[in-house]
Amino acid sequence: MHLLLHRQVTRPGYWVHTGMYRLLSHSSSAKVVKRDMAPFPQDAPTVEGPAEFSRAGIGGFFQQKPVLKNPFLGDALLQGYLRRHLPSEAVYSDLLVFGERLVYEVDGWGRECETTPPKLVTYDPWGCRVDRIVTSPAWQRMKDLSAQEGLVAIGYERTYGEWSRVYQMCKLYLFSPSSGLYTCPLAMTDGAAKVIQALGVSGPTQEAFSRLTSRNPEDFWTSGQWMTERKGGSDVGSGTETVALPQSDGTYRLSGFKWFTSATDADMTLTLGRVADRDGRTTPGSRGLSLFYAAVRDEDGMVQGIEVQRLKDKLGTRQMPTAELLLDGLTDADCLNHECTGRGVACIANMLTLTRIHNSVSAVSGMRRVLQLARDYATRRSAFGKPLKDHPLHMQTLTRMEVETRGAFLLVMDVCRLIGREETGHASQLDTHLLRLLTPVAKLYTGKQAIAVISEGLESFGGQGYIEDTGLPAMLRDAQVLSIWEGTTNVLSLDVLRCISVSQSYFLPSLSVAVRSVDSALCGLREFLQEAVLKPPGYLELAARDLAYSLARIYIGALLIDHASWEGASQSDAYAALRWCEQELCPVLSNAATGCYNTETLPQDAALVYEASARQ
Ligand code: MFK
User: Fold this and answer.
1) Is 90 exceeded by the pLDDT of residue 485?
2) Residue 72: strand, helix, or coil
3) Cβ of 187 below 6 Å from ligand 1
4) Is the pTM of this model over 0.90?
5) Which among 289, 352, 489 is the best mutation to test ligand 1's pocket, defined by most ligand atoms within 8 Å of the CB?
6) How far, in Å, is the centroid of ligand 1 from the Cα of 443?
């Protein structure tokens, strides 16, 4: 110590470092990185050396980073779920190998997509307008990989019958956190394929369908979904201004302005517009909307009849180009609902369903990834004398995250199961209703959960969770979009309300087998609905979000109990169900009891929100 102090005085930077290096090298809990430095000789004279070549004294302890391991092997619930429902050796080994590929290859590309975001090149060096979106090589590799791995194709090949969607979505669930947001174009591609298939694959969409569902990278296409205009993000029916002029060859020429177009480097798009009559008049509202298909690139990959106005400067999802597009007479657009003009929203609804399911898959996969990293880190990081994993409070936090994630996973997989049944003709009427109801429930609930769980996950890394180049902050930024795009929480809550009012009776009895807490929550929900219909108009709208949350919690509770009752279930499955049911499962009932949804308080709500500006 004496020697150390002496050296600190004589050569601060160099000797402090060396001394610390020696001390820490005896510590068992700390990781000491042996840096590439000359050993300090015991009896070295304290003569001045060439200072400009000495190392900075930054200490010898370096925290080990969390290590990503095969996400398939590290996911007990995913494996249990597949063992129970899809016990296929081929599926198991595909996911196992894919999991390895994600760790050793793809995850690095995902990071590259984040650090090399897309750029818009508007003009070439000679002044010609080109509107080229330049993406990173990693983004392009993601496209090839998506085709090779069948990330869209699996859903259409249907090798596993009604379980094919579950298989596809499990693979996407593994892929999503490493994908550099390539899951976004895949969501829309899948949605477009489903829309085309539902409307009948023929004429110009024949080639599109086979490309969207191809496993050959040379042929594979992605699709955009251009719905959002400046007036209509949620209110598509009245906000869409795009006009479609019929052409003599039966196609349409589109003019309008699309305000958010994600993955704008796509090869084709589905979009909405209003067909103009001979006098240029269009029908307002939802009834005036038609659905169009257009291939948007020529043989050289250049857009035609489109000006890319600018790329969006976004909070997250920076890996992916999102653009404002001026449709400046986009030609050769085909109307997909020729026979029934004005059915645009209904025709694109299949795409909404699919992208909302993809959104839910991405949400639950983000939760799972942050947990996998956090639990690994808890074995590597020590504080207050022991690894984080040995601190009860830390483990309680991880347990709560785990329970949330398990519940979300089962909810999302149940929706995938239902869509698989519907697509293969196995769905009962109840299944079809449940699919319609649970798609928005899963989307709205998991979108919000993902933000909360990932935020909590970042905290479990302490300050490192806030450091950009760990890759962790991007997870939170990217999660924030999950509750916004493809329908915000409130828009989807109102959608849930629409589904319930259509067929209120189908949902409730089906869950009556659940355990006591689920059962009593279910009774509470029934009681609430019975009373709510007698309330003044507007009451149910104010309750819509809590109602959707109650449905999600009760249904997830039933799924967790169901999974825990399976003969192959683990003790943790049962424990997860118990923990889930500890929370309030029917918040809409308790909030109703406190008068939360009384419409008389609306003026006071407004007064409260606007108080500051009213005083100005
Ligand atoms: C990582 C993965 C992420 C994927 C990201 C992709 C990035 C894309 C970026 C975007 O976010 S694009 C913008 C997304 N925009 C929305 O999601 C719109 C949100 N608004 C709604 O969902 C509104 O509820 C809706 C636009 C659908 C309301 O429009 P309308 O015209 O008022 O519809 P209406 O009258 O309720 O329904 C018209 C028809 O469509 C009805 O059919 P019928 O006439 O036969 O009865 C409805 O039943 C049907 N419909 C509406 N919503 C449906 C649906 N059918 C099935 N599912 C639905 N969700």
Assistant:
1) yes
2) coil
3) yes
4) no
5) 352
6) 13
Tokens linked to 160: 């596993």
Asked whether 227 lines ligand 1 (CB < 6 A), one says: yes
pLDDT tens readout for residues 112-128:
999 999 999 999 999 99
Question: Does 286 sit in the ligand 1 pocket, CB within 6 Å?
Answer: yes
Nearest-atom index, ligand 1, CA of 228? 13
CA pair distance 287, 51, nearest whole angstrom: 78
Q: Is 495 in the pocket of ligand 1 (CB under 6 A)?
A: yes
The whole-angstrom separation of Cα 182 and Cα 102 is 13
DSSP secondary-structure letter at 567? Answer: T
- pLDDT at position 613, please? 63
Summarize the confidence of residues 135-147 as an average pLDDT. Answer: 97
Return the exposure string of 377-397: e unless at least 16 CB atoms fall within 10 Å of the residue's CB, then b: bbebbbeeeeebbebeebeeb
Pocket lining: 317 vs ligand 1, CB cutoff 6 Å: no
CA 110/CA 528 separation, integer angstroms: 46
pLDDT category at 273 given cuts 50, 70, 90 is very high
Closest ligand 1 atom to Cα of 482: 3
**Tens digits of per-residue pLDDT, 517-548?**
999 999 999 999 999 989 988 899 999 999 99
Instruction: Tell me whether residue 477 is exposed, middle or buried, using C-beta atoms within 10 angstroms of its C-beta: 0 to 12, 13 to 18, 19 or more.
Output: middle
Residue nearest to atom 22 of ligand 1 (CA): 487
Q: Whose CA is nearest to atom 35 of ligand 1?
A: 286
Q: Take residue 185 and report the two structure tokens written for it.
A: 């174009």
Rounded to an integer, the average pLDDT of 376-394 is 95
Give, in order, the Cα–Cα distances in Å from 290 to each of 190, 262, 349, 486. 20, 20, 12, 19
N-to-C CA span, the chain: 66
pLDDT band at residue 614 using 50, 70 and 90 as cut-offs: low
* List of residues 6+ apart from 214 with CB closer than 8 A: 147, 153, 220, 221
Candidate from 183, 234, 345, 432 with most ligand 1 atoms within 8 A of CB, to mutate: 345
